[in-house]
Amino acid sequence: MNRTIKYLLISLLLVIVQTTIARLLSLEGITPDLLVVWLVYLALTEGQLRASVWGFGIGLCLDLISGDFLGLSALTKTLCAFVTGYFYNENKTQMTLGSYRFLLIVLLGGLFHSLTYFLIFTLGTDISFWRVVFQLGLTTTLYTATVSLIPMFAFSRKLALRA
Amino acid sequence: MQRLFTIVRLFKEYFVLALLSVISLALLSLNDNSQIRTIRAYTIGIVGTLQSAISIIPNFFSLETENEILRQQNVVLTDEVSRLREARLENLRLREMLQLKEHSPFRLVAADVVGKTLDLLRNSITINAGERDGIRINMPIVSEAGLVGRVIATSSHYAVAQLMVNRDFRASAKIQRSRVMGILAWAGGESLQLKNVAKTQDVIEGDLAMTSEYSNVFPRDIKIGTVTHVAEREGGLFKEIQIRPSVDFAMLEHVFVITTTPNPERQALESKVAK
Prior knowledge:
The structure holds 2 protein chains of 2 kinds. Chain A is globular, with a radius of gyration of 15 Å. Chain A is built from 8 helices and no strands. In chain A, helix 2 (34-46) crosses helix 4 (72-84) and helix 6 (100-121) runs antiparallel to helix 7. By secondary structure, chain A is mainly α. The longest helix of chain A is centred in the C-terminal third of the chain and has 22 residues, at 100-121. Chain B has a domain at 108-262: Rod shape-determining protein MreC, domain 1 (Thrombin, subunit H). Chain B contains 5 helices and 12 strands. Chain B has a 6-stranded antiparallel barrel with strand order 1-2-5-4-3-12. In chain B, strands 6-7-8-11-10-9 form a 6-stranded antiparallel barrel. Chain B is globular and about 90 Å long. The chains are: A mainly alpha, B alpha+beta. Chains A and B meet through helix 3, helix 4, helix 6 and helix 7 of A and helix 2, helix 3, helix 4 and strand 1 of B.
């Protein structure tokens, strides 16, 4: 199957999962952002440019579905993909995906995503930016990073089998 | 020209990022556009159907806590029902005495919550009642505990409601005991705040907050919540009032939509005076 179509199908599936089934994984109202993990994967395998476009598309879908703040997720997901795309290295993709580096990049991407998201989200309101970042941003990022252990171990195993 | 192309090619990632950011920011500023509302109506319809199907799966992580809370609520509600029965009888008797006719001016549409986003980012719910049931944007949503929010998007069978704990939510509210008025807004987290209440006005912890008659969206006297904290900052003109909503949004399963729309005569008069 064409890689773009494959990515498109996975992205759509993940957007639907994130907006419907992901709540089943919520702990104290905190839900992991599966799309950040997917975007980090795309950034590490496809590079900064393509990942940014995918981030924009995925974020836009999410905005349309959530019925609130059209453009906010599109912007923050684009930025998240762009920032994590700095870690793209064609020769070390598999090694990065199967090591703790993937986890660290998800943490960084998730944190950056939360910071930009809440920066815009709290603009013009009485909601404290730092309070929301500490209360929700950090916890969501940590939960997302924990979930990213699953693909990390899968890639690590794949790498070991290949060797 | 050739040089320009070389520069664009060299920094193509940055150009694409700038372009996508500009599009996103443009979309952010177009949030009330009618075309976007139409696209949203379609997506809400599709996602609402999916959420409706998935809502039968329980959240195993919270099942135990939910059961415990339900048991406690059951005890409280049983007690409350017996007290309400007494109050109802007394109320009927008093009404008869005063020859007041009991009336409910609003038509209520019952709906189930089929989707819920309570990650404290975009606090909203999806309900399985839509335009075909007479639901329109801005209609108030209530539960037996009090005010829940207002409808912000509709499709033919579903609607999305903005909860009180949403950054864009505003409502005119009053303190039941002292009739002090203020503007209700989300304070972040689980609490609300009552703004624009002067330091001289009488508000204490434990007071009940209700919707006021000044609102053109919400009917008056719907319970909002209880005042949990009142503070006065030095140099400020207003009190800092925090309110705990009476509705437990995490437990919300059934709601009622009050199918009332803003009074056009009142709106016309107010806009005429404003001009």
